[in-house]
Amino acid sequence: MKAPRGKGAGRGASKAAARDEAPGGAGTETAGAGTPIRTAAAKAAKAAEPESRLAMVRRARRINRELADVYPYAHPELDFRNPFELLIATVLSAQTTDLRVNQTTPALFAAYPTPEDMAAAVPEELEQIIRPTGFFRAKARSLIGLSTALRDNFGGEVPGRLADLVTLPGVGRKTANVVLGNAFGVPGLTVDTHFGRLVRRWKWTEQEEPEKVEAEIEAIFPKSEWTMLSHRVIFHGRRICHSRKPACGACPIAHLCPSYGVGETDPEKAEKLLKYEKGGYPGQRLSPPADYPGRPAPPLGAGADAGDGGTGAE
Asked: Looking at 139, 174, 275, 278, which residue is catalytic?
């Protein structure tokens, strides 16, 4: 992992500080032969100056670039082999971890490999298989319902359009964007709890409603970046920028974060808060990509879960 670049200052802040201390720089007065005198009032005024939208967009895009360096292996953290498996896994991920879903789906897809198979499932038998993911009765109804819709309305194939996907039981925009971005290559943002938390901490938006967050973040980045941006932000939220105890002192983009200090800033203490491969633990996937630097997750019953929440559906 890259070492954090100072306590929230970094190169950009250092340059700004140097510029302000230079003769004639912002917030200076001169005495005698042009000697700069830095005033407390000028410092306070500069600190309180709101960030322009242009500056925010530039900072946001730099965060994305630096996250790409930190997580070059970022990927969807649900195991899947085809669009149907990804759709089912994403629906199951509501209110549980992706790890738990990945531990459950091998048996599920062995029993019901196609929409036709799942549409014909006996509810009680399906419920028993997906029980470890929680809310299993409601999820079983959604799985049977969406599989029936795929069989009857889409020829047994997962559609590749947002408008079609959101007509399926249990499928909303977030789930649809996961499927479109990762199974069909159609760019989309996955606004889950991690994504929403981080973009607000980074002051990219103040919105709370997922669709409004999605619209504002889409306006900041080129469409081609949406899917990978989602992976990078979610990876960072799960591994470092946690909800309750962010590891600020171990964060490689601390120098770009306006919320630096909401979590542990001591580097050694922060290091102990890291999760998954960043903390030396197994990842969430039983079958991770070849370039994943961590260990595969254990199968169901073989080890304790480590994590900070799943992608989630609606």
From this structure: 174
Q: What is the pLDDT of residue 151?
A: 98
Strand segments, DSSP code E, in the chain are 28-31, 35-38
Rounded average pLDDT over 299-303? 79
Q: What is the pTM of this model?
A: 0.82
Catalytic-residue membership of 212: no
Tokens representing 133 are 């993911």
pLDDT of 311 > 80? The answer is no
Average pLDDT over residues 41-59: 79
Q: Is the distance from CB of 59 to CB of 204 less than 8 angstroms?
A: no
Please, how many CA atoms are within 13 Å of residue 106, restricted to the half-sphere of its CB?
10
* Catalytic-labelled residue, pool 79, 98, 192, 308: 192
192 is catalytic: yes
Among the listed residues 34, 269, 18, the one whose alpha carbon sits nearest the alpha carbon of residue 26: 18
Please list the residues that pair with 282 across neighbouring strands.
295
